[in-house]
Amino acid sequence: MKDFIIPAYPPGDDRDMGTPARTGAPVTLTVDGIDVTVPEGTSVMRAAAEAGIMVPKLCASDNMEAFGSCRLCLVEIDGRRGTPASCTTPVSEGMVVHTQSDKLRRMRRGVMELYISDHPLDCLTCAANGDCELQDMAGEVGLRDVRYKAPEGGRLDNHFTIREGAGTNARYVPKDESNPYFTYDPAKCIVCSRCVRACEEVQGTFALTIEGRGFDSRVKAGGPDDSFLTSDCVSCGACVQACPTATLQEKSVYELGTPERSVITTCAYCGVGCSFKAELNGDQLVRMVPYKHGKANRGHSCVKGRFAYGYASHKDRILKPMIRDSIDEPWREVEWDEALAFAAGRMLGIQKKYGRRSVGVITSSRCTNEETYLVQKLTRAVFMNNNTDTCARVCHSPTGYGLGKAFGTSAGTQDFDSVMHSDVVMIIGANPTDGHPVFASRLKKRLRAGAKLIVVDPRRVDIVRSAHVEAAHHLPLRPGTNVAVVTAMAHVIVTEGLMDEDFIRTRCDWDEFQQYAEFVSQPRHSPEATEMLTGVPAADLRAAARLFATGGNGSIYYGLGVTEHSQGSTTVMGIANLAMLTGNIGREGVGVNPLRGQNNVQGSCDMGSFPHELPGYRHVKLPDVREIYEKAWGVEIDPEPGLRIPNMLDAAVEGSFKGLYCQGEDILQSDPDTKHVAAGLAAMECVIVHDLFLNETANYAHVFLPGSSFLEKDGTFTNAERRINRVRKVMAPRNGYEDWEITQLLANAMLQEMGGAKWTYTHPAQIMDEIAATTPSFAGVSYELLEEVGSVQWPCNEAAPQGTPMMHIDGFASGKGRLMITEYVATDERSGPRYPLLLTTGRILAHYNVGAQTRRTDNVAWHPEDVLEIHPHDAEVRGVKQGDWVRLASRSGETTLRALLTDRVSPGVVYTTFHHPDTQANVVTTDFSDWATNCPEFKVTAVQVSPSNGPSEWQERYNEQAERSRRILPAAE
Fold it and tell me: Is cis: bond before 26, omega within 30 of 0?
């Protein structure tokens, strides 16, 4: 295909170099008369490519180890007999290589002739026409005729292939179209094994094999009766990307044709922040292909980023602004001017009646940094208060607090590449294979190379035991006891003298360590003393602690299973303690790394979305910080911290908070205690929802402003490794505006009434310039820099002009690292006779957050509904069988869903996801929260499970209300 990358970055190109890059001493050789110097261990094929000479190949690709099966890449080497394969032959000093000769041309044509003899010659109508390596290689080696003919009687149609081997009996091999996103056509398979190797080496799932021999050999997914849909295949797309023919092909290419141009952008799903080439025909998006130079994903992807982009054109998407006076009324479509005037008038009226602090905003972790910056600016410079919060309140706010206290910065310490240097990896409260699958693939590759794994999780998540990977230790703790487990590990390290004393003396406060050591050494913190509390066998915990302390480079990755607790901040500080105790900070392969859930949750925090912090995590009470923004914005900044999301809802119920602008978040589905959230929203006089769809929060809205998808905007996202990546507009906004423009229009509508100066941004680059001018950690960031180097990790400033991949190399931002006292305090949520089970929640691979996007794609094929995982013992004593409807009840509420019997959860623990609003799992969660940040305690809810006949009364009432609230009046003629 013609590939116009806009722009081409970083320096280099998209050529497939055949084999992976190596590091080592320089070696100089000559290829076709051209001298080239490459690292020791480099293949001849890659060396030739470095010299600009592309040796023909079919089985080789530079994201996998050399295989040497196709025999197309033959070369001649002076002083050596025969014609070795260039992909499997390493370079040597002084080597002289010839890639072109009559002999090589004849041999390559002969090889290609054999491939083509068993391949359909339907190139003109093939979906891969113009994008087929087999076709390209046939032309490159000069093959113009095929002497070998397939046996008579073979035929090809749309669904079946007749293949014939040595005999005359035809064997029907069906075309596998079971996967929603791609097809497998065995007739076109050349058995190069690239798909099998990609599944093993890149993804690490090992779902594909080669079955049969000779002409009957073919790729097979799963067991004898499996299809691509029913096998272990996770639809990451690595096999499709690796396939050199149309054997594995996106269905979108069949439907829309071969793409002819591409734009590089950044995925808008999880916090990994994968780079993609959005490939198009005209303005029609055909497919998303992971970008090989993406520094976060290195050319890999998952099912969401690779395939689940169809929500952007889904029929449910709202493209016209809508308003209504009361939530009991149907929606009325209006033009933008009327909607913005209505919203501005409502918000100004509320402030005039109830005071300037009676309104606020919720910024979006799905929108760009620039858009989020403008929303928090709206509340501070137009609403004139600090009532701004973000979804990090309900996910990673304890990360900001805990790491800020320990290290002085509120973010992870490493880049994702760092895990390839880890010797021991500890995962606590995270499920990377489902929540951060591209990172999980990198991690599994490192584990297969010999690194050890410790998993601390109530559930047996996939990473505990999967193909060729098994954790050295799985500590299935009782939900709510993270602090006790982490402190017990520290007890072992300190009492057994396993800590890194040199690191502690040099990098930490030694006097503070003495106090901490005295605390953690107390017998009550020993694994034996905490075993009854945590449920973790003392011997297992001791062994895990010893492994982490003595096993070499130790890295810690954690997720919402750490933060969404009443002691979330304490656990984060405890994790930081473990890293400092063992000296695992400040070099490759170590560190403390939060796995952020949403694509820009790190960025939304960086941009000042919290009510007590301006951009860059600087407290709003500091006069010198406020002065920066007062000069930039020409207004006076309120020094009083604003309301957090839970405080906004409480104040709304009490009657003092009356107006909310909510961009790109669905708090009715994502936040705890759904009934309380609904009551707070219902009590407000103006709720403005700015989103793609009429989400659950919009049931209580008065203004709906249609948003733009990530494909329709320019800007930046900041991923979990602090990497700032460009988002580029792939197509024009279907709603007419990018999201930053909508916020600016609303601000100007209010400023016009107030007599203030209008905002005059014309491009997100100008917003980033303002961010850089006012935020020290972003001081060196500009669109020009990002175009030049691809991406940077903050801090990026005069001291680090190319960004900071690794934090705390020589010291901590706060000076000395602080070892914090981590006293375990039991949650107020207790199980008992009435509610004897503990519910914990999480995510699943196919879906993202509240499912608003992925539920509007074919990803529902894998997860059409939320289910309740329950141990077979707990199910049996309750009379519950596989697939039964069950009632899930807590002190807060109840819902119904189907049961899934599994030993992934321990007896006494149940688990569900929150992707489907029909279930509304958060109707049962409590309003308990983290002591420091109000992050909800999603992970510990006392519940009872019992058989049910179907939806609960609350679900029926909720669905009726939702249906009424989504009525839209027909457009006026």
Answer: no
Give 338-391+601-793's CATH code, choosing from 3.40.50.740, 3.40.980.10, 3.40.250.10, 3.30.70.2740: 3.40.50.740
Q: What is the pLDDT of residue 395?
A: 80
What is residue 973's predicted lDDT score, i.e. its pLDDT? Answer: 47
Which sequence spans correspond to the domains of the chain? Answer: 182-313, 338-391+601-793, 397-594, 837-965
Q: What is the CATH number of domain 182-313?
A: 3.30.70.20
Closest CA to 367 of 376, 359, 358: 376
CATH class of 837-965: mainly beta
Look up the CATH number of domain 397-594. Answer: 3.40.228.10
- Residues in the chain, pLDDT under 70: 1-12, 149-172, 971-973
pLDDT at position 555? 96
> Please, are residues 269 and 198 in contact by the beta-carbon 8 Å criterion?
no
Distances (CA, A) of 877 to 243, 302, 552, 842, 873: 50, 39, 46, 25, 6
pLDDT at residue 917 in the model = 84
| pLDDT value at residue 11 | 42
Neighbours of 35 (CB within 10 A): 9
Q: What is the pLDDT of residue 573?
A: 94
Q: What is the pLDDT of residue 850?
A: 86
Q: Tell me the C-alpha distance between 443 and 480, whole Å.
A: 26
* Distance (Å, whole) CA 597 – CA 430: 10
Give CA–CA dist 843/409, Å, rounded. 27
**Rounded distance, CA 645 to CA 651, Å?**
10
The pLDDT assigned to 172 comes to: 57
Burial class (CB in 10 A: 0-12, 13-18, 19+), 786: buried
Alpha helices in 418-526, H assignment, sequence order: 432-435, 437-448, 482-495, 501-507, 510-520
